[in-house]
Amino acid sequence: MQFGEIISAVGEIVDVAGVVAIVVGVLYAVVDAATRGLRRISPVYTRFRRVLGRAILLGLELLVAADIIKTVAVTPTLESVGVLAIIVLIRTFLSWSLELEISGRWPWQGRGAAPTSATGDDAPDEPAAGGTVAPAGPAR
To answer: What's the whole-model pTM score?
Structure first.
């Protein structure tokens, strides 16, 4: 097996890993939301969106990496590099949009930046250091 074939196979494996990440993430988000809904654990919808968005982001990152690997594996032509550039631009835009939806801020904004959510439903879903979930209502 030659070097180009090995790199191409690695690209295919990373491609499959990206798709698997998205599918597993969607399944996990649906099961998590259903479980939280049945147990009446809040928030359901915002957590579902956040978990689903993270799965899609991970999958997109792996798919971009696979495209880069596969483009480098074959003899790069101006056309293949151009197509890769367009794919990376589209997927980067999608990643940024998802990041804004998930965290309420652009990827280049720091953690201290104010969330852009107008609904106020940006309460954390993950347990804090003490192991409890922060209340969703306004602080008193």
So the answer is: 0.67
